[in-house]
Amino acid sequence: MAAYVKIGEIAMKKAKTFQDTLQFAQMVASKHGWVLHPDKEFLDILIEGLTINYNRYGYYSCPCRDADGIRDQDKDIICPCDYCPPDIKEYGHCYCGLYNDPEFIKNGGMPKSIPERRQYYFTK
Fold first, then answer.
1. In a domain, 81, yes or no
2. Domain for residue 82, yes or no?
C-alpha cells in the first residue's frame, strides 16, 4: 500500500527514493525469475528514470518510453510493462533492459536495442 503525506486537505503519495525503486525492481525481478541489468551504471540510470517517473506521475512508468501522465493511457507501460514477458521470451530482456532472463545474462548476453511492441505509441 502506498504511503501518503497529507498536505492541507490534499493527500499526496510519498516521494520514492532511488533505494525504494531499486528495492521495487529487485522484488519484481525475483518474483518473475528475472535478473536486473548487469551493468551497474546503466542499471542506476534506469532506476533513476523509474524514480523520476513515479514522483512525476504517481506510478512507475517505463523509463524508456514517453508516458502521458494519465494512468489509464499508460497502464500498458507501468513497470513491469505488458511487453516485458514477451520481450524477455523473444530477446532475453525487456525493451529498456531492466529485466533479463538469467540464462541470457549467464550466456554472455547484454541487452541491446529491440523493436518497440507498443502500437499505441505509433498511433498517437
1. yes
2. yes
Contact 108, 93 (CB under 8 A): no
pLDDT of residue 1: 43
Report if residue 72 sits inside a domain. yes
Residue 22: CATH number of its domain: 3.90.460.10
- Give 4's strand partners: 13
Rounded distance between C-alpha atoms, residue 4 and residue 6, angstroms: 6
The reply to whether the predicted model has a pTM over 0.90 is no
Which distant-in-sequence residues (6+ apart) come within 8 Å of 19 by Cβ? Answer: none
Specify the number of domains making up the chain: 1
The residue range of the domain holding 46 is 17-112
Mean confidence (pLDDT) of the chain: 90
**16 by DSSP, 3-state: which?**
coil
Question: Cα-Cα-Cα-Cα dihedral of 113, 56, 19, 106, to 10°?
Answer: -10
- H-state helical runs in 58-83: 71-74
- Model pLDDT, residue 73: 94
- Domain membership of residue 118 (yes or no) is no
The cell numbers describing 2, all together, are: 502506498
* Neighbour tally for 60: CB within 10 Å: 22
